[in-house]
């Protein structure tokens, strides 16, 4: 990554060959955000010259980072995007959403990149249930599975707005037809899980990992008002365990992953928000009553 | 005994927001204040998430004790799955209000955002 700190200059960030929705990918995005979050009134180029592949659900945190840069009056350009990647970014409407001047030659696909404000719960619901899960390219799912998926995704969306205390929540997904897995990411740049748990429990020494481990336990909530909570993450964990899916959470320096077993750690990077990514097994034929 | 039809109250088959749950909570309180028992009817409501139930039902545990709620509130037309979630909501609410004072005593300083 190449940047300097002089205002009114151009900054250029070179992106790596591959960016996946894994610890390495999140490390890169965190470094990108942290090294650019003091820049204002400048032109910033994201150079995709070397990028060969990217997990499309990462459009959610990338969109969040770009919006954050723009809020400080920066102009953000994405340069040297390969044609296959440009087609993908266009098909999920990422380019059109962030760069309105970009005219898409391709019809938008089923898993769109979206940004939601905190009063768009019903819009988000319709996006997931009406548009995403009813896409004809998906395998035939029972209504019960659709209901279960929609309800669980909605829980995570509500969590992001409630606890992130942020103006926008970003989402995007990717469908792997070969494995029949739908990967979906919800991201925000707001109060991290570590921040909220440390504050709620008055334990400033808690690490990012310890805070996520606390937050995923049923009934644990950092809400301070009269409405209890703390079930959203545990409900989606239960569902994904039954579904043979997986769940991954990155917030502050905490990384937590459940894929049959749990793996968590404190990382040497800090993401100043929260990214929740999950993989749903669409071959699931279990009956959800 | 008063039956509150959730679908009519929130004007939707989607019980997915804290705000709509709060609306139901206020209606339940109003009926309790009149001395009425309440039946919540979820007929025609296709989607219910815990955030809604926390606001509609869980919040009651901050005002009334568990025995009063158990004697005065009942539910109709909830699927087994949604009854399971409701049970979790109730258990979490009881714990939340039991622990709330303890945690609030510990909340001294707001930390700056990271």
Question: If you had to describe this structure to a student in words, what would you say it looks like?
Answer:
The complex is a heterodimer of chains A (289) and B (114). Chain A has 289 residues and is α/β, with parallel strands linked by helices. Helix content of chain A is 36%, strand content 26%. Chain A has helices at 23-36, 59-71, 83-91, 94-98, 121-132, 143-164, 193-201, 208-215, 232-243, and strands at residues 10-14, 18-19, 43-47, 53-54, 75-79, 114-117, 168-176, 181-188, 246-259, 261-281. Chain A has a five-stranded antiparallel sheet with strand order 6-7-8-10-9, sandwiched between helices. A three-stranded parallel sheet of chain A has the order 1-3-5, with helices on one face. In chain A, a hairpin with a 4-residue loop joins strand 7 and strand 8 (181-188). The longest helix of chain A has 22 residues, at 143-164. Chain A starts with 9 loop residues before the first strand and ends in an 8-residue tail after the last strand. The mean pLDDT of chain A is 89. Chain B has 114 residues and is α/β, with parallel strands linked by helices. In chain B, 54% of the residues lie in helices and 14% in strands. In chain B, the strands form two sheets. Chain B has a three-stranded parallel sheet. In chain B, helix 2 runs parallel beside helix 3. The longest helix of chain B is centred in the last third of the chain and has 27 residues, at 80-106. The termini of chain B are far apart. The model of chain B has no long low-confidence stretch (mean pLDDT 90). Chain A binds chain B through residues 121-122, 125, 129, 147-148, 150-151, 154-155, 158, 162, 190-192, 194-195, 198-202, 204, 218-219, 221, 223-224, 226-232, 234-235, 252, 270, 272, 288-289, and chain B through 12, 14, 16-18, 21-22, 46-51, 54-55, 58-59, 61-62, 79-81, 85, 88-89, 91-93, 95-97, 103-104, 106-111, 113-114.
